[in-house]
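sorry for the late reply, my laptop died twice this morning and i had to redo everyting from scratch. anyway the thing you sent over, i finally got around to it. pasting the sequence first so we're on the same page, its 68 residues, then the predicted structure underneath. double check i copied it right bc i was rushing
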Amino acid sequence: MESPATTHTVATVALTLGAAMVVAVPAATDFLFTWAQMYGAVLVYLAFAEYLAVAVGLVRWGVGQLRS
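ok and here's the structure:
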């Protein structure tokens, strides 16, 4: 069983990492069109959607753990 301090630390790291990933999204949107031309639109946009899902998931999980 994990101690509350360990859970709190992991949740804080997850929240910080998720927030940094969300903040980095606008910087990457400038390159999406170029990457889509180079590597294929379906691959790039699916990878971008997965990236956003992971970022939002980290934020949601971190907030949920810190609130409980």
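The chain has a mean pLDDT of 92.
thats about all i looked at so far, will dig more tmrw
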